[in-house]
């Protein structure tokens, strides 16, 4: 039997990149998956097609994680369709780099609303909907909270907040058998990283030269860790912040 058989997983921001890879991996391990998206409906439906074409179960559901009404609807639709929910992957996130002089209220609020408030709202809904046997919440943080490069003040702050939320909620929800862990990837070759100009840049060269495994990550690298944290194999892990960075510290 596949290790996530009979489990239901919601992956936020799963229309592309790391989220899409996680959704596909959890489905391959037997989970019924909700591919959440905010705006990229076509991309989300493509991920669903990739899953179902390979014999998996998946649906695409829209929802802005920074809005409580959207989150409530996302979970209600999931329960209505699959009968429950056991796993939440808080992957939805945005980033915008800029020096201190470029900091704006709008930019601050946009990143914190999605990267931090979104994690809290989705986790709140998950805790309310998980069965009495518990569940697994997996946050996607970032290695940036450890290496803190210039020009990333707001984004680094949001991901440092995710580290803290992970540890706090692990203690708050542990008695209910709900495990909360975070995966903090280093540089990963995604559509977003390419659009931002990171891949193929001097930054990528610097990262590769300073990575013990001598490469940037690919989405599947993170998905493998997410599948482990979703499964019974990680049943004794909670409050952990796992640096998935190829060895970068």
From TrEMBL:
Keyword vocabulary terms for this entry: Oxidoreductase
Gene3D superfamilies per the UniProt record, alphabetical: NAD(P)-binding Rossmann-like Domain
InterPro entries reported in the protein's UniProt record: NAD(P)-bd_dom_sf, Sc_DH/Rdtase_CS, SDR_fam
PROSITE patterns documented for this protein: ADH_SHORT
Top-level taxon of origin: Bacteria
Entry GO MF terms: oxidoreductase activity
Pfam families found in the cross-reference section: adh_short_C2
Family in the record: Belongs to the short-chain dehydrogenases/reductases (SDR) family.
NCBIfam families, per database record: PRK07231.1
Name of this chain's protein: Short-chain dehydrogenase/reductase SDR
Originating organism: Chitinophaga pinensis (strain ATCC 43595 / DSM 2588 / LMG 13176 / NBRC 15968 / NCIMB 11800 / UQM 2034)
């Amino acid at each position: 039997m596949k290790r996530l058989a009979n489990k239901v997983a919601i992956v936020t921001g799963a229309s592309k990149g790391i989220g899409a890879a996680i959704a596909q991996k959890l489905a391959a391990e037997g989970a019924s998956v909700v591919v959440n998206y905010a705006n990229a409906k076509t991309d989300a439906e493509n991920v669903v097609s990739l899953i179902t074409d390979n014999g998996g179960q998946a649906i695409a559901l829209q929802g802005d994680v920074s809005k409580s009404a959207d989150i409530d609807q996302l979970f209600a639709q999931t329960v209505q369709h699959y009968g429950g929910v056991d796993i939440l992957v808080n992957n939805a996130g945005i980033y915008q780099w800029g020096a201190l002089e470029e900091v704006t209220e709008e930019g601050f609020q946009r990143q914190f609303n999605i990267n931090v408030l979104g994690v809290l709202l989705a986790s709140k809904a998950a805790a309310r909907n998980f069965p009495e046997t518990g569940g697994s919440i997996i946050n996607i943080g970032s290695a940036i909270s450890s290496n803190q490069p210039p020009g990333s003040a707001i984004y680094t702050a949001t991901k440092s907040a995710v580290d803290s939320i992970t540890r706090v909620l692990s203690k708050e929800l542990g008695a209910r058998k709900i495990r909360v862990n975070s995966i903090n990837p280093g540089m990963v070759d995604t559509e977003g990283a390419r659009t931002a100009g990171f891949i193929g840049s001097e930054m990528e060269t610097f990262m590769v030269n300073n990575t013990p495994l001598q490469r940037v990550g690919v989405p599947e690298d993170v998905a493998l860790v997410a599948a482990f944290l979703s499964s019974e194999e990680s049943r004794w892990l909670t409050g952990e912040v796992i640096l998935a960075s190829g060895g970068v510290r």
